[in-house]
Design brief:
It is built from 18 helices and no strands. It is mainly alpha-helical. It is globular.
């Protein structure tokens, strides 16, 4: 047990990372069913694009508001089995969505799913960092790629299961929630044991010690701006890419879902690559390359043919997705010992900004066109230029690890 405890503090426990990544995969797969069934809900209940945006707003804002609060609380009072509790909320929400017969019940269902995500993400992110040891970027990416993989698979499963059989078939995803509850209960047992032996105080890097509290707040604000640019753009893709393809190129719903799957699969792959690169070459470099580097491809997307649109969407997904793990680990290095609060803040920003963007783009699409919102949203990755204002907190680490 002593040898195991030492390993938990210094090494990378891949078994726990893989299990919690699997739980994240199932959680986000279930959650991604919501935007995937928008075409069905729109036709069944005569919803406007604004109402579709409101559905996304409710699930993501519910999660966004609660996550920093949950994270700050669990920083002081960790609850090993909170992941299981969060997944139970998700289970209830997805079952309710399968039988919801009005716009109000749909909002209640997705709000319940949002509460589940709010409980799940901050503590699971902390467990991922705990199990990652010294490879925090890789650990966070393994955790995050599970969520991205689930998000990518959701539209594909929706095309196979829900589109042919209708709204009630959403209840089949409750099986995934039950599997996740069992897996996360196992993780909770490991984390309960790890908490007993965790006595080490958080390590503050020399570069961060030199930063004033004001400079740290400025750096966190810049990271929030970068998160804004990434997730406002991502919201236009995840919520409206299918409608863009249907409207501009005349593809059917199933084909549009497959194209969305290709984009989200590229997002999953880019997330894993970005974490490993960040551990080796620095988080700031990854943030530069990820957000600002996606701008040329994003700017071209609304003006090309169908084949090039799909190719560019895959490239954009691969490039822009590598930023989040780097942003999150960079932020936790600025505020060591506050992993839950920081994870809650940035996961909350992820969901909240996505929700606000969905409502905004839905409102704008009702007044202009789907094609116009894609022409507008492609400007967002240009905000990646503010990465240059971040302090170089990893410079000494990179120099010391060079061969």
């Amino acid at each position: 047990m002593t040898k195991e405890s030492a390993r938990e503090k210094t090494g990378t426990i891949y078994s726990i990372l893989l299990i919690i990544s699997f739980g994240h995969f199932l959680n986000d797969m279930i959650q991604s069913v919501i935007p995937s069934v928008y075409p069905i809900l729109r036709d069944e209940y005569n919803l406007t694009f604004l109402q579709i945006g409101i559905i996304t707003f409710v699930v993501q804002m519910t999660s966004s508001i609660m996550q920093p609060v949950v994270g700050a609380y669990t920083d002081r009072h960790p609850h090993p089995y909170s992941l299981t509790a969060g997944m139970m909320f998700t289970l209830v929400g997805i079952l309710l969505l399968s039988v919801a017969s009005s716009f109000g019940l749909i909002l209640l269902a997705v709000a319940t799913v949002g509460i589940g995500s709010a409980v799940f993400h901050p503590e699971s992110s902390r467990i991922a960092q705990s199990a990652a040891g010294d490879k925090k970027g890789l650990g966070q990416s393994i955790f995050q790629v599970g969520g991205n993989g689930g998000t990518a698979l959701g539209p594909l499963l929706a095309a196979i299961i829900i589109l042919p059989f209708g709204q009630k078939s959403i209840s089949w995803f409750s099986i995934a929630a039950l599997v996740a509850i069992a897996a996360l209960f196992y993780v909770g047992r490991w984390y309960k044991s790890a908490l007993r032996s965790a006595t080490k105080k958080p390590v503050v890097s020399p570069a961060v010690k030199k930063l004033s509290p004001k400079r740290i707040r400025q750096a966190l604000f810049i990271l929030c701006v970068l998160t804004f640019s990434k997730y406002f753009y991502m919201a236009s893709m995840t919520s409206y890419f299918t409608f863009f393809l249907i409207d501009k190129f005349g593809v059917d719903v199933r084909q549009s879902q497959l194209c969305l799957f290709a984009f989200l699969a590229a997002v999953a792959a880019g997330t894993l690559i970005g974490g490993a690169i960040g551990d080796r070459y620095g988080r700031k470099l990854v943030i530069w390359w990820s957000i600002f580097g996606a701008a040329p491809f994003a700017l071209a997307l609304p003006y090309v043919n169908l084949t090039m649109t799909i190719i560019l969407a895959i490239v954009i997904g691969l490039v822009i997705s590598s930023a989040f793990s780097a942003i999150l680990v960079y932020a936790t290095e600025l505020k060591p010992g506050k992993v839950g609060m920081i994870a809650g803040l940035f996961f909350g920003l992820n969901f909240g900004l996505g929700g606000i963007a969905s409502v905004f783009f839905g409102w704008l699409a009702d007044r202009t066109s789907i094609e116009f919102i894609f022409q507008l949203s492609t400007l967002l990755p240009l905000l990646g230029i503010v990465t240059g204002l971040l302090p170089d907190i990893e410079q000494r680490k990179c120099n010391s690890s060079a061969p």
